Records
---
Amino acid sequence: MTLSPRQIESRFDWAGLPAVAARVIQHAIDIQQIPAPTFDEARRAAFVKARFEALGLEQVYVDELHNVYGCLRGIEPTRSAVLLSAHTDTVFEAATDLTIRRETDLIYGPGLGDNSIGVAGLICLAEMLQERHLTPARDLWFVANTREEGLGDLGGMKAVIERLRGRISCVINVEGMAFGHVYHAGIAVRRLHITASAEGGHSWLNFGRPSAIHGIVQLGAKLTTLQPASTPRTTYNIGLIDGGTSINTIASNASLWLDLRSEDAGALANLERQARSHIEASITPELRFSVEVVGDRPAGSIPHNHLLVQIALGSLDGLGVKGTLETGSTDANVPLSQGIPAVTVGITRGGNAHRLDEYIETAAVGQGMRHLFGVVMATAEAQI
Ligand SMILES: [Zn+2]
């Protein structure tokens, strides 16, 4: 028999909840203060590893990508485990001023919500279980993974799933500011870096020669006429353009970065084909184009009525919060694309993700921890 998150929660003494919330926030700040740009997460990984070891998790391990693993033994260790994950990397470069600022019940700080508080939630959940001697029905793997943001291409989670394949049967992924939302579908993403190259020359003396910049902006103009399907939702964005050396030089090099997304892998492939046909048509003997795939995030989903989704929604319901179902690109894409059920849930609310004025709401953190606790413990009981 599967217990609901509500029934599971009722076993717990929530009188200590404000103290738990305060600890989550303090951990989140401690983590946020350690710079962790994508591909440079080693220092943050060392912090998490020390916490996992102090908590007595088993098989604590850091892999070559700085993913940190720790296992909490369950009542039935022969059953396949539940994986709990949260990414450590941020979109902010190492030199970013990480000073936090408090304003009534908000705390501002780059990366605090995305995803320091997610990682803090994982650590504090393990702490709660250990302190109160609560044993989950089966093993829980706690993993603070890397390479979720930017050009990380979910590389951390890809390695985690590779390593734990066969030992886990479902994934609960935590994105700090997603409280109230349940991501059950991972959209597919393809990212192309398109480079134009030409001979170049002097803007006056060699006028008439092909320019890599002119070629790239002409291609860009064609790409903005792409008509992606609205159902399944499919989108494109030219996010960056660079190139050239000076105002009076015919550019020999220029490039643009194209991000393509869809709820459906087929629709995405179709959009990429259209983009590539514009690229092919732009090539001349004097103006060359090359394409490098710099991002490939696979799609996958579980239906609304999947038990894992129902547990997550039921947990929110029990807390008096109307949960909303979401599709998006998170670390859960990786297990979902491989047929492993996964949801992404949150710890609190917040805003301005990926901006220097990112903030979290402190008032929701207690609720968020009850939610995480309920979802994790109910999932451990369930046959998923
Ligand atoms: Zn995130």
Note: The mean pLDDT is 94.
---
Amino acid sequence: MDKKFFIGIDIGGTKIYGALVRPCGEIVHSLKAATPPKATAGAILAALHKVIKELLKEAAMPVSCVLGIGVAVPGVVDSSGRVVITPNISLSGTELKKILIKTYRMRAAVGNDVNFGVMGERWLGAGRRADSIVGIFPGTGVGGGIIVGGHLLEGAQGAAAELGHVIVHPKGPKCTCGNSGCLEALAGRWAMERDIRAAVKGGEASLIADIAGKGLSQIKSGALKKALQAKDPLVTRVVRKAAEALASACVSFNHIFNPEVFIFGGGVIEACGDYILPVIEKALQHDPFFTKLNPPKVLASKLGDDAVMLGAVAMVRQQCDLKELKDLSYYPKVQIVSAGRVRVKGEVLSGAFYIRADGKVKVPGDLIPSHLTDDELDDICKKGPDVLIVACGHKKSAEFSAMALKYLRKKKILPCVLPMRDAVRKYNISQDRRAILFHI
Ligand SMILES: [Zn+2]
């Protein structure tokens, strides 16, 4: 069998996400399993092997089809692939890369999850073709990853780029790491929860108790978003404070690394990015030192939950030579069959359908480009295209509504409405991350 794949695995605190991925980055098959709670390293390794075995079994692939395995873990990993510390799961001290090579007799890459996530974004997401990237992923904590000259900055012991523990306010609140005033202690979700709980306890009125539950034991990112949408003053103030802490840290990071792009991912950004990213972008644009230079781009992650797993694949893929990676087309080719029909992945389609930025073809039934709702746009623009092409068929015309244009501007997606033949040509030859909506 000459079909070749990689296996990418993202081991998280609560779940293990694994996928079989083509060399071009297309996810062929994926699955999630629970990370055994409070388990020993042996039990976590057993769960990891099981995920690999199931992936191959469900896709009916022999292990000889796999070019390499990449595994991301939530902790510090040294350059030999040894897990140094994983604070939330018991993998500390595991020679994970050696175990993978010995068990599967193939190439392996093991590294920190956020570092790998930034590599994933560089390969297929928001950082494509950028050689210098600062990635910041605010979730419960704040993770970081830095790429300089196309390479991950690992540090002497693999502990570089822990951007959440950069101190932004020396007299600020205590952090989980033991220091005070870390970025994470101001902008992580746990820090926002702490501030919201204290204010509510102090008698401040807020909708958040109705949204997140009276005890406020956990305030998920989605609850923060709902409260922001309802213009709740407390949550707006707390999120704004977190955004400002991120903004001042980014001004410093810009002076140290002068990156082409800042990439923001993680649960807090997915939910509240529209409120946070403009604050950071503005601070970078108004840095007097950089007035005569171009400010860096500020972008949200394009790969979402796939970033870390795809980054693990990107890292092991780097060890292959180009001949092994001949399977290069990520997007399905589109062929015009007749005025009203096109062929995609062997199927002839007409009417309204779209191909998302991850190459998935969706046939939703009725869709009118000039009347797209935010929900429809959310689905068409899932997985973050840079450009959204609309292909208009014979005698049809289309334009985006003012609302859709506003949506696309906010998401930094370039709208592009073209007659069918031009649209298909643009789609087939584009180097950008792209989505296409057919209206034929
Ligand atoms: Zn800290």
Note: The first strand starts at residue 5 and ends at 11.
